[in-house]
Amino acid sequence: MYIKILLNNSLPIKDRIKNLISYIQIKRAANIAWGSRYRKVFNVHKEFNKQLDREGEKMHKKYWKPFSGNVNISTYRVCNHISGSSNPEFLPEEIFMADIQPSLNNNNAAEYYNNKSLYYQWTPEPVFPKAYIHNIDGEYLNSNLQTISFEEVIMIAKELSYPVVIKPNKDSGGGKDVFLLNSADELIVHLENKKNVIVQEKIRQHDFFNKYNRHGLNTIRIVLYRSVADNNLHVLNTTLRMGLGGSLDNETAGGVFSLINKDGNLNGYALNKFGTKYYRHPDTGVDFSEKIPDIENLWDMTKRVTNSIFFARIISLDACMDIERQWRLVEANVLCQHTIRFAQYSGEPFFNEFTEEVLEYCRKRHWALNKRD
């Protein structure tokens, strides 16, 4: 790819050099980040770093060679050991981070969709948690995004039903800085001098999901892909995320996840961030074999909502089922934070049947082959 960037005659030499430097920096950052990640995984499961399928590894390296002359085999080995699958299309994490994701989601205008305070502007459906108070760059706003004073914030806080949730409305992930508050006094203290936060209702989850973990919200991650071939939306994969030992459902925070098959059934086991496999939830003893209720309506709803999102071809939505059996959306991830290991550790290439078209598109229309602002 380095030579291809340099020899790209469609760009002036100045832009080629600029793109090459950016690509080298991103590639290096990806290699460092995932090298560190896999060292931690191999410390827990040393067997994951052993070769199981020599021919499969050769096919895997050949398949992804357009993006790297020396494909890191770690992703393939971990997926191979956990799932038993030898699919060469398992997408290396470093290549996804440096090549695929920025080529498919290559417009910073999509950052608009990541701001939680603006969710309510781009979809007419009442699927996100009810919002009460926003702060955007130091400005307090009410539920209609109208400017209010801090005195009015206090008045609203005193009229709310508790508990409520306060969290950052941008640049957040992994459940960081999310707080459940039980009184107006607590909320006022949290809001004072705080920038870029949102106050929302606390969603009560349906009993079906309580049986896995009732100490927090268990969410479903739905990854959608807008095809480069015809612009139609497709659900790539769906995963149930659950808390463990009082943790949040994010696997980075200690939670576990179980892939949901195309028929709506869980795939029989859950995994943590190191690839440790559980056939029953360690806290509740519930197995991972049941069908998720009303999953078809969730897939339909996420497609409708995602139709309002432009400038990105990969969109990840986090959903939950509320006490009234209605699907709600908790969060949208547009530019980044698309976790590919949920599907891949469970034996499915992240892009599944669309892998070949994505590979070809990104090879020919790689972000580093185009002029950047």
Describe this structure in words.
The chain has 12 helices and 12 strands. The chain has 373 residues and is an alpha+beta fold. A 5-stranded antiparallel β-sheet has the order 2-1-5-3-4, covered by helices on one side. A 5-stranded antiparallel β-sheet has the order 8-7-6-11-12, with helices on one face. A two-stranded antiparallel sheet has the order 9-10. Helix 2 (13-44) packs across helix 5 (93-104) and helix 7 packs antiparallel against helix 8 (184-191). It is globular. The chain starts with a helix and ends in a 9-residue tail after the last helix. The mean pLDDT is 93.
Q: H/E order of the elements?
A: HHHHHHEEHEEHEHEEEEEHEEHH
Overall radius of gyration: 22 Å
Described by strand count, sense and barrel closure, the largest sheet is: 5 strands, antiparallel
Give the uncertain stretches in residue-range form: none
- The CATH topology label of the largest domain is D-amino Acid Aminotransferase, Chain A, domain 1
